[in-house]
What we know:
Structural class: mainly alpha
Number of strands: 0
Amino acid sequence: MDWLYTFSGFVVGFIVGVTGVGGGSLMTPLLVLVFGVAPATAVGTDLLYAALTKMGGIWAHSRRGTVDWRVVKLLALGSLPAALFSMALLHHLALDEKHLKALITSVLSVALVLTALALLFKPYLQKLGRSPDGAVYELHAHHLPGATILTGAVLGVLVTLSSVGAGALGVVVLLFLYPRLPTTKIVGTDIAHAVPLTLVAGLGHAVLGTVNYGLLGSLLLGSLPGIYLGSHLGVKIPERVLRPILAAMLILIGGKLMVS
């Protein structure tokens, strides 16, 4: 079975490299629906998987100057406490396996559908950040920090309970909140925020015992070369082609989880 996990890691890594969408929206459903991994274990393992695979992204974007650390700090002010609170709540509730599975599956299905909608409506949401005459619209400076912290808090809960949300969903919200930032800086900022968030949430799952380290190693073994190859091929495939295909896939997966 290990080689199948490694192959799955390669496939998901390749798709992530091509599309730039976080692996959580693909890896966690794959582990749950195809391999029958318990949802809590799939989420916990995928969170550490995401943190480790994205660490190189921080280094690369930081060197290129494509990270807005002020925005990262604001997002983290909301997301990290939200992640810790979510883990503490799970520990306090001490749900049995059946109810924990139902909770995580429900949140996961909603997160997948939201990510799919974010992919589909990304161009339109980007335009909402601009006025009809082309002048950039931004929230009043007084409200923007609060909106960013609130965004981080919502992402913190979603990511902790489903491992989904730190990728495409985070990017789309940042595009709307900060339309003046170049897209490359939006992506770099989102990755820089995703690493500490997924690491904190993943370590929280490790404390609860919902991380499979053997599975984690097998996934990493396949995903790292997959991401490398996919990132080189991705520049040759138009985003307008990839976006609806991936969105449709996520909606189908989310629907499958809802009725399962």
